[in-house]
Amino acid sequence: MIKYFIVLMSVLISGTAWAQAVCTNMQLQVNQTAFDLVSSQTVNPTLVVKANTNPGACDFFITFDYGQGTSFSSRGLRSGGNVWPFQLAKNAAGTQIIKRVGDISSSNDILSGTLTAGSNDRQVNVNYWAILDMSNPWLPRGDYEDNFTVTLYRGSPFSSYVFISSNSVRFRYRSGSRVDISLVPTGGAFNVSDTTETLNFGVLTTGATRSADAVIKYNGGYILKASSQNNGRLKHSTQNEYIDYSATFNGSTVSLSGTSSNPVQIIRELGQSPANGKRIPIGVTIGNVTGKRGGQYADTITLTVTSAE
Question: Which residues form the signal peptide (predicted)?
Answer without folding.
Answer: 1-19
